Amino acid sequence: EAQVTQNPRYLITVTGKKLTVTCSQNMNHEYMSWYRQDPGLGLRQIYYSMNVEVTDKGDVPEGYKVSRKEKRNFPLILESPSPNQTSLYFCASSRDLGQPQHFGDGTRLSIL
Amino acid sequence: QKEVEQDPGPLSVPEGAIVSLNCTYSNSAFQYFMWYRQYSRKGPELLMYTYSSGNKEDGRFTAQVDKSSKYISLFIRDSQPSDSATYLCAMRRSGYSTLTFGKGTMLLVSP
Asked: pLDDT: is A54 or B2 the higher one?
């Protein structure tokens, strides 16, 4: 089954404790992306990757890092999480830039 | 002016009704238009994907794009309780990967 898998689905942690949210897709997609979804603000892009070792900033990259060492994986790293990064995070992928993106089921992060 | 405007609802309709969901946008460079459906605690699921102006139909769903008015619509015929969800419009410019989303309209279809 074609899917985008995120882990963990839920996480409560404390300010400053580094965390990584993993994202993996099994569709051999070139393009992957991270979004955060906040009430009243909608979905906003954090980072995206056009292919292995190619990443770029989206609209709200501050406080986040990403890496794309393999085609299937695109982890989101919060080096020093802060409460304003409490949000619902989605990973998405598509075959290439021109194709619509398919989303994972989300990771709800709470940073105290 | 926000780039993409979408009424948050909720929009409540009885089962079997025709539903009209809409977005307006300000950036005339948008060329690709999408509608996503999002159930509670799930990720957005692609419903419709259209390029430039015109209509596209898929089962009970019809997407319309009017670039001259900067207005896109999603029509749902014979609405079902299982259609109850939040509907997000999204759009992007040609050659760019970034999607710009509306904030979503919550739809409630009552039996």
From this structure: A54
- Own/partner contacts of A70-75, CB < 8 Å, gap of 24 or more, are A71/A28, A71/A29, A71/A30, A72/A24, A72/A25, A72/A26, A72/A28, A73/A22, A73/A23, A73/A24, A74/A23, A74/A24, A74/A25, A74/A32, A74/A33, A74/A34, A74/A49, A75/A20, A75/A21, A75/A22, A75/A23
Three-state SS at A29: coil
Shortest distance, CA A18 to any CA of chain B (angstroms)? 25
Among A101, A102, A105, A108, pick the best mutation site for testing chain B contact (most B Cβ within 10 A). Answer: A101
pLDDT tens digits along B61-107: 999 999 999 999 999 999 999 999 999 999 999 888 788 999 999 99
What tokens does B73 get?
A: 């619509």
Q: How many CB atoms lie within 10 A of CB A70?
A: 10
Contact B34 A100 (CB under 8 A): yes
Tens of pLDDT, residues A39-49? 888 899 999 99
Does residue B8 have a cis peptide bond before it, meaning omega lies within 30 degrees of 0? no
Of the pLDDT bands very low, low, confident and very high (cuts 50, 70, 90), residue B45 is: very high
DSSP 8-state secondary structure symbol assigned to residue B83? G
Over residues A4-27, mean pLDDT: 96
C-alpha span between A84 and B110 (Å, rounded) = 36
